[in-house]
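#lab-general

N.A. 3:47 PM
ok so I finally got the sequence cleaned up, no stray characters, all 167 residues accounted for. can someone with queue access submit it? mine expired

B.Y. 3:52 PM
send it over

N.A. 3:53 PM
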Amino acid sequence: MLEQAAVVSGFLIVAFVLVHAAVSDIAFYRIRNWSLAIGAGAYLPVALVSGLPVATLVASAAAAACVLAVGFALFCFNVIGAGDVKLAAVTVLWCGADQTLPFLMNTALAGGLVVIGLFFARRLAANLGMTWLSTLHSLRPGRSDIPYGVALALGGFAVLPATAWMP
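B.Y. 4:20 PM
back already:
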């Protein structure tokens, strides 16, 4: 009973972090550290209570550390934002080492869809004079950056059903 409650709470924590990051990134181009800290901090206790094997736990942490290291290098070259790097690492932590590659592939695919959708949304907002949409930072005229937290969230949700958290 306690293990099942831990699995459900783990899923809800990950879902909250992913949704919050996506919405925050669209609206403000900012992924809040407090939500990422909740996601990272809850992993160990939830994983232990849920009965996740220690080997799976260690492999997930190692995969997340690798994603964090590579992401930090990309951040240093101004390729990706710091919040995106941290979100990717937290998502890999929860999804597990075995789902890291599918997560990254789904995120890349979702990133392409986000770019296309954002292109059309920006054009539509500009052509229809929908100035109220400019309250969302990602739809302001002249912006070319991408709220990649959306793609990371979509990639996370795509692989979440195949993780150790799902029976």
